[in-house]
Amino acid sequence: MGSASKQTSPTGKQPKPGSKAAQQADRRARIAELRAVEQRRERRNKILTIGISSVLVLAMIGGGTWLAMDAKDKSDKKKAAAAAAAEAAQKAKDDAAKAEIPGLQTFGKLTQNHVQTEVKYPQTPPVGGDHNPVWQTCMGNVYDKPIKNENAVHSLEHGAVWVTYNGKATAEDIKTLGDKVKATPYSMMSPYPDEQGTITLTAWSTQLVVDSATDPRIETFFAKYVQGPQTLEQGASCSSGQM
Length: 243
Hints:
Layout: H1 20-98, E1 105-106, E2 139-142, H2 149-157, E3 161-165, H3 171-182, E4 187-191, E5 199-203, E6 206-210, H4 217-225
Parallel strand pairs: 2-4, 3-4
Antiparallel strand pairs: 1-6, 3-5, 5-6
């Protein structure tokens, strides 16, 4: 290399070409050049590493910000949808509360004493009156056997809707009604062989008889009377009662 030709011996004299001193000087020059090249490579690699790391950090920050904003946007949309659904449901309930139900019977003010004895009710099924201190569990419960009037009436006092049916109800009617009740807290369903109507919907002091589970008045009755204005004990439990 050109730099090797300028190397001098320890005595200050130029080493002779091809001599051992000249070879040593040339080797030292090559080593120095290789070190310089390696140092330049290391500096470039450090610069590249720092640059790439900075880009990655910025990308992570940007990505994290975007994810946070996207999550917030989704959360806001979800809350807005839930609020809209709740508002629509409340509007439907308010509209149902104002709606007239053809064939609906109401029975005025009824007693509501707690008694341990059997009660003879004037309506079948009963719509209210004195009742057992223990209510029938009515959190969407579907019973396949008749339940006691006195426990069921206590549930009506808590704002439950009681669906009953006799032998005229079809298997399809029973399934449709059962699915409706299971999806509705503060409702219950049981067979009632002695009732005159095929299907009877009962709330406190209120009753509707229909012939089929497809009758549109059923939806209106549920919307209006599940925890509706007839409820004497708003907020009372419908769980942990008689089963």
